[in-house]
Automatic annotation (TrEMBL):
<dbReference type="InterPro" id="IPR019734">
    <property type="entry name" value="TPR_rpt"/>
</dbReference>
<protein>
    <submittedName>
        <fullName>Tad secretion system lipoprotein TadD</fullName>
    </submittedName>
</protein>
<dbReference type="InterPro" id="IPR011990">
    <property type="entry name" value="TPR-like_helical_dom_sf"/>
</dbReference>
<dbReference type="Pfam" id="PF13432">
    <property type="entry name" value="TPR_16"/>
</dbReference>
<keyword id="KW-0732">Signal</keyword>
<feature type="signal peptide">
    <location>
        <begin position="1"/>
        <end position="18"/>
    </location>
</feature>
<keyword id="KW-0449">Lipoprotein</keyword>
């Protein structure tokens, strides 16, 4: 449905241009080319923003086949392959982009991220090491923080997380990752504060709500955090805290929380029911 509409707009624009230019063929041709370029850019942006990942891969693969040296199409293909989870193809696609004469430092950062998604942290770090220190961007520091985290270089990790958070207007994901890092280090109080910051920027981020519940449970605090949540989310967080309590041998607390989760859930909470039956049956 999209293509006929675009074609109609394109033809309509060409007719108007023709009338205004005295029907000079060269002027009309240049005008159509300009409209077509804008149209292609809009379609590409639409594909990257909301299109089905596999459809986007097909679209950009076709564009690359038509014009193999078009860097924008190469980038679109690489991004789409990552979105589609086709990392074995995405990595060489991003590598090709970085080797293009007009490739940028941002392209190298995207290649590093593709390596990380493929769980090849060594290659990711190797690529990032080729990016000069003067290239200070959110994505670069976000990845640097995760690499430092993996190496348990906590001082660097904290520095990079803080820097990344200051380079974006949407730092909720950074604060959530930073908080989870603190949680795994055995610093649940600091972690809880970071999850709270994540939720201040994105009150809908359920991952941060879950992590905050875990951080509170790690401190022996089994009351739900005072954050915005739906009835279903409340039940799920109670279930999360129940499991955390049971793992800490606070079995009676865990049993109470499981029952509350079952009573709270707007539908049947099968997972919590199974956990409570297993607990009551002495199955662990």
């Amino acid at each position: 449905m999209r293509q006929p509409v675009l074609l109609t707009l394109l033809l309509g624009s060409a007719i108007v241009i023709s009338a205004c230019s005295g029907s000079k063929p060269a002027n009309v041709s240049r005008a159509i080319d300009a409209v077509n370029a804008v149209d292609q850019k809009n379609v590409a942006e639409l594909m990257l923003a909301s299109g089905n990942p596999e459809e986007a891969v097909t679209y950009f693969a076709t564009q690359v086949e038509r014009d193999p040296e078009n860097l924008a199409s190469q980038r679109g293909l690489a991004r789409s392959l990552v979105r589609a989870g086709r990392l074995a193809e995405a990595i060489p696609a991003w590598r090709k982009v970085t080797q293009h004469p007009d490739g940028t430092q941002d392209d190298k950062v995207m290649l590093a991220e593709a390596h990380m998604r493929a769980n090849d942290w060594e290659s990711a770090e190797s690529v990032l090491n080729t990016v000069p220190p003067t290239h200070e961007t959110f994505d670069r520091y976000r990845l640097e923080a995760m690499i430092a985290d993996g190496k348990k270089d906590w001082e660097k990790a904290d520095h990079f997380y803080e820097t990344a958070a200051g380079l974006t207007t949407r730092p909720s994901g950074v604060f959530n990752n930073w908080g989870f890092s603190k949680l795994t280090r055995g610093a649940p109080r600091e972690a809880e504060q970071l999850f709270a910051q994540a939720l201040q920027h994105d009150p809908q981020l359920f991952t941060a709500k879950t992590n905050m519940a875990l951080a509170r449970a790690a401190q022996g605090n089994y009351s739900l955090p005072l954050v915005r949540m739906t009835q279903q989310e409340r039940a799920m967080l109670l279930h999360t805290m129940a499991i955390a309590a049971i793992r800490k041998d606070d079995v009676n607390v865990g049993r109470t929380l499981l029952q509350e989760a079952i009573d709270t859930h707007p539908q049947h909470f099968d997972e919590a029911v199974r956990a409570l039956r297993a607990l009551d049956g002495g199955l662990g």
